[in-house]
Amino acid sequence: MPYWSLYLEGQGFSYLQIATLMATIQLTKVVAPNVWGWLGDRSGQRVRLVRFGALSGSLFFAGVFLEPGFYGLLLVMLVFTFFWNAVLPLYEVITLRELGAQRDRYGRVRLWGSVGFIGSVAMIGGLLEIIEISQLPWLLLPVFAGIAVSTFLVPSERGERKPPAPKGSLKAIVTHPAVIAFFAMNFLLQVSHGAYYTFFSIHLEQNGYGKLAIGLLWSLGVLAEIGLFLVMHRLSRRFTVRQIVLGALALTMLRWSLIAELTWLLPVLIFAQLLHAASYGALHAVSVQYIQGFFGHHHHGQGQALYSGLTFGAGGAVGAWMSGFLVDGVSTSAAFWGGAAAMAIALVICWKALEPPPAPDTQA
Fold first, then answer.
1. What is the pLDDT of residue 298?
2. H/E/C letters for each residue in 275-314?
3. Residue 164 lies in a domain
4. Which residues cross the membrane (predicted)?
């Protein structure tokens, strides 16, 4: 993700084309997780679906090497991400089921994804100082192969007995005012991240940062995220869910404002990247609790899929496209100001309507 927009820029695509291609990564999350989540809930064979998604996604990614042009690459990324976006939501459900009553240890498991991100970003950033950005797809192949192999290290599920249907239907859950506020908040959160995931690397390059420095700054944000995951269980005991959400949204708004105006000041930029602990780490950890509490055991897979689709998917796609228009018409800084505005709206919604999630498996 940190280098893909730079790769696309190197291939000669315009800012709007880059925004569209990056939005595709998020757009398939609207449909794919719901399809795979439904299949996982229906069959109980989530590990097998994860394996299928990882293998199929890796296979279709190879279409990038054909250099198919804008529309061809758009098709490749649509198909590739449809399978790829099956992996993480299913893994979330598998992990939480395995943890059982120890679900507060989720952050300690999830942080290893962050460790992997830091290692790959730093390594690839160093390599891109030596080789051309056009070689990026070749650097990604070992990563995809490793993920596909690792899925076979997870024991297959023997199948589980489907729990009795709760009194409340899925429709009753998703139309609850507190659930609507929760999804609206996360939708706007991902809209605000549109500029970050699409144009942060280009924004840094325009301000004189090299590819290694760009990779290290991305890694710094994820390092802060790891720190947050390690102490999240303590924060949850000290602060209410509402306090954590409102504080994290305010810090995220501050983060986008600093990146918009003060990128050239390295100490300020470092501080802004440390705020990734709030804008991703805290809000994602809290959101997992919301999904588990509101959707219960019976609808957990579909709840996780809706969370991924409506927020990371729809919100991420809208954010990428909107940032593309702002960058093309104004500047990269304007796109980050747009993200700060989205956070201001999210703060108002949460202040008025957000409620704490019910205890897991008690939601009817």
1. 64
2. CHHHHHHHHHHHHHHHHHHHHCCCCHHHHHHHHHHHHHHH
3. no
4. 12-37, 49-66, 72-91, 111-131, 137-156, 168-189, 209-232, 239-258, 304-322, 334-354
* Residue 142 in domain: yes
pTM of the shown model: 0.71
Contacts of 263 (CB under 8 A, 6+ apart): 203, 204, 207, 269, 333
C-alpha to C-alpha distances, 341 to 193, 203, 252, 261, 347, nearest whole angstrom: 12, 19, 11, 14, 10
Around Cβ 12, how many Cβ atoms within 10 Å? 9
> Are 211 and 271 a contacting pair, CB within 8 Å?
no
Angle (deg, nearest 10), helices 177-192 and 194-206: 20
Q: Report the Cα 73 to chain-centroid distance in Å.
A: 22
Half-sphere exposure (CA, 13 Å, Cβ side) for 327?
A: 28
Under a CB-based contact definition with an 8 Å cutoff, are residues 63 and 70 in contact?
Answer: no
How many domains are there within the chain? 1
Q: Say how far apart CA 265 and CA 188 lie, in whole Å.
A: 27
Low-confidence residues in the chain, pLDDT < 50: 160-167, 362-364
| CATH number, domain containing residue 56 | 1.20.1250.20
Instruction: Evaluate whether residue 52 is within a structural domain.
Output: yes
Domain, as residue range, for 246 = 4-153+169-353
Spatial separation of the C-alpha atoms in residues 52 and 83, rounded to whole Å = 8
Residues 6+ apart with CB under 8 A from 66: 72, 76
- Is the four-CA dihedral 170, 246, 228, 124 of positive or negative sign? positive
Tens of pLDDT, residue by residue over 319-330, are 888 888 899 888
Output b/e per residue, 102-112; b: 16+ Cβ within 10 A.
ebeebbeebbe
The whole-angstrom separation of Cα 319 and Cα 190 is: 7
